[in-house]
TrEMBL record:
Keyword Oxidoreductase part of the UniProt annotation: no
Domain Peptidase M15C: 93-181
Entries under Pfam families matching the protein: Peptidase_M15_4
UniProt key word Protease: yes
One Gene Ontology molecular-function label: carboxypeptidase activity
InterPro entries registered for this protein in UniProt: Peptidase_M15C, Zn_M74/Hedgehog-like
Coiled coil: none
Protein name: D-alanyl-D-alanine carboxypeptidase
Organism: Vibrio xiamenensis
Assigned keywords, A-Z: Carboxypeptidase, Hydrolase, Protease
Highest taxon above the source species: Bacteria
């Protein structure tokens, strides 16, 4: 990965904390394929569960290839409509480390779920070939074919496995392809305490699922928004646990 410009000595997470998860998925023609995705060790079991659920729900994915195959070039990976996770890079347009640099964020089907940024009077879409077809976020449109592979149908699967933040809810930029686990304080805890990281992550998920169970009479979209925000806020102000 160092030779492929995916990780460096300055990266916030060492190679020893990374794990490759081998997954099975359906492509857009319905054929079963295999792929691999690299994430932090503490969340690897949950990432395996996410892709197992996507497969069971027959949600198509174009490809799942570690970004080393694109020499760390996020835009090249997007243009190939590739799903990936770990990449020791800063946030788009910034200098602080992205959640991808910790193996705690996943970008899925970038063509169907583009990154949208507003620059002055201009809208920038990445990958650019997504612009005409996927900025209208309705999978069903009258008189037009149903569009699968859009992130909206995956939000619950990701959230139920700890990836509570979906970039599709953001205002600027809007990152439809992007799912991440949550607040920086939680990321720091998972990074700093390897022996406890998996247990901490499971507690985070349990708190979210407990909130959802208590909110079962609330419309699911509203409950998800409330519970995600509530749990993320709780773990943003990290007490010693």
């Amino acid at each position: 990965m160092k030779k492929a410009n995916v990780i460096s000595e300055q990266a916030p997470l060492p190679c020893s904390r990374l794990k490759q998860v081998d997954v099975t998925f359906r492509d857009f023609s319905g054929k079963t394929q295999t792929g691999a995705i690299i994430v932090m060790d503490a969340v690897a079991h949950r990432v395996e569960m996410i892709f197992s659920a996507l497969y069971q729900h027959q949600i198509p994915i174009q490809s799942i290839t570690p970004i080393r195959e694109f020499f760390g070039d996020d835009e090249a990976s997007m243009r190939a409509n590739n799903t990936s996770a770990f990449n020791a890079r800063p946030i788009t347009g910034g200098s602080s480390w992205s959640k991808h640099a910790y193996g705690l964020a996943i970008d899925i089907n970038p063509l169907q779920n583009p990154f949208v940024e507003f620059q002055a009077s201009q809208i920038v879409v990445k990958p650019p070939q997504a612009a005409k077809h996927y900025l209208n976020r309705y999978s069903y449109r009258l008189g037009k074919p149903f569009r699968t592979g859009m992130a909206e149908e995956m939000v619950d699967i990701f959230a139920n496995n700890g990836f509570l933040i979906w970039g599709g809810y953001w205002n600027d930029p809007i990152d439809y392809q992007h799912f991440e686990i949550g607040p920086r304080a939680l990321v720091n805890r998972l990074t700093a305490e390897p022996s406890k990281a998996r247990g901490v992550f499971e507690k985070y998920i349990a708190d979210y699922l407990s909130c959802m169970q208590l909110s079962e009479r609330t419309p699911r979209e509203n409950a998800r928004a409330y519970c995600s925000a509530s749990v993320v806020e709780k773990y943003s102000h990290w007490p010693t646990q």
